[in-house]
């Protein structure tokens, strides 16, 4: 018996899926490679669908809002209706975001084909209503952004590697690690942060 024969419900986005979010009641939000965003309830009924500018790479739900990264943009979608309430283009690709204390933190990166590398990255802060607050640029690419003890933390690539905490005014405090390789992923719990390095 294969996995599909055991599935009791199948939902279709009609394009390759690039991001998923499942809430505690079993409702599903799915984002696609071509910018589709669709919301199903726990019974599999479509509640709404929306179209965003590009591939959706991350989905975060905060109260009545769905915050997503979509290509160069971060966008806010009304959870109840699917209406796009605001959208902002960042510099380079919008890689990930974090919602905390009614603020939206996003990380972005600019890739240069000639250099075959990321040449500039940034951390952005917006209000939950979409008002721009600040941008902090850096040479290192931030690969992941996490919340720990009510503070955003970013895992960094070269040249610095390590990780940084992000103050509410945009000040970055860098921390080194024993491993001298980029931090490319991570997860947070109530007690600690766990980062994964490119070299394993």
Q: Given the C-alpha coordinates, what overall shape results? A: globular
CA gyration radius, whole angstroms? 18 Å
Helix tally equals: 1
- Give the helix level as a range of percent: under 10%
Proportion of residues in β-strands: over 45%
Q: Distance between the terminal alpha carbons, to the nearest Å?
A: 34 Å
What is the number of E strands? 18
How is the largest sheet built, in terms of strand order?
Answer: 1-2-3-4
- Largest sheet geometry: 4 strands, antiparallel
Mean pLDDT: 90
The SSE order reads: HEEEEEEEEEEEEEEEEEE
For this entry, give a set of tags:
200 residues, mainly beta
Describe the fold and architecture:
The model has no long low-confidence stretch (mean pLDDT 90). The chain is 2% helix and 57% strand. The strands form five sheets. A four-stranded antiparallel β-sheet has the order 1-2-3-4, with no helix packed on it. The protein has a four-stranded antiparallel β-sheet with strand order 5-6-7-8, with no helix packed on it. It has one helix and 18 strands. The longest helix has 4 residues. The protein is mainly β and 200 residues long. A hairpin with a 5-residue loop joins strand 7 and strand 8.
């Amino acid at each position: 018996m294969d996995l599909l024969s055991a599935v009791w419900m199948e939902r279709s986005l009609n394009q390759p899926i690039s991001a998923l979010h499942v809430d505690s009641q079993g409702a599903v939000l799915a984002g696609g490679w071509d910018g589709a965003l669709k919301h199903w309830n726990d019974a599999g009924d479509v509640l709404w669908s929306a179209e965003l500018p590009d591939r959706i790479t991350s989905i975060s739900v905060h109260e009545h809002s769905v915050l997503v990264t979509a290509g160069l943009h971060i966008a806010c979608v009304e959870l109840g209706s699917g209406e796009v309430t605001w959208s902002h283009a960042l510099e380079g690709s919008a890689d990930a975001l974090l919602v905390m204390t009614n603020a939206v933190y996003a990380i972005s990166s600019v890739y240069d084909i000639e250099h075959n590398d990321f040449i500039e990255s940034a951390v952005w802060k917006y209000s939950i209503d979409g008002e721009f607050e600040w941008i902090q640029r850096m040479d290192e690419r931030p690969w992941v952004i996490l919340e720990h003890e009510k503070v955003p933390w970013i895992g960094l690539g070269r040249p610095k590697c390590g990780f940084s905490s992000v103050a509410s005014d945009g000040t970055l405090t860098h921390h080194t690690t024993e491993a001298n390789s980029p931090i490319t992923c991570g997860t947070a719990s109530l007690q600690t942060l766990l980062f994964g390095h490119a070299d394993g």
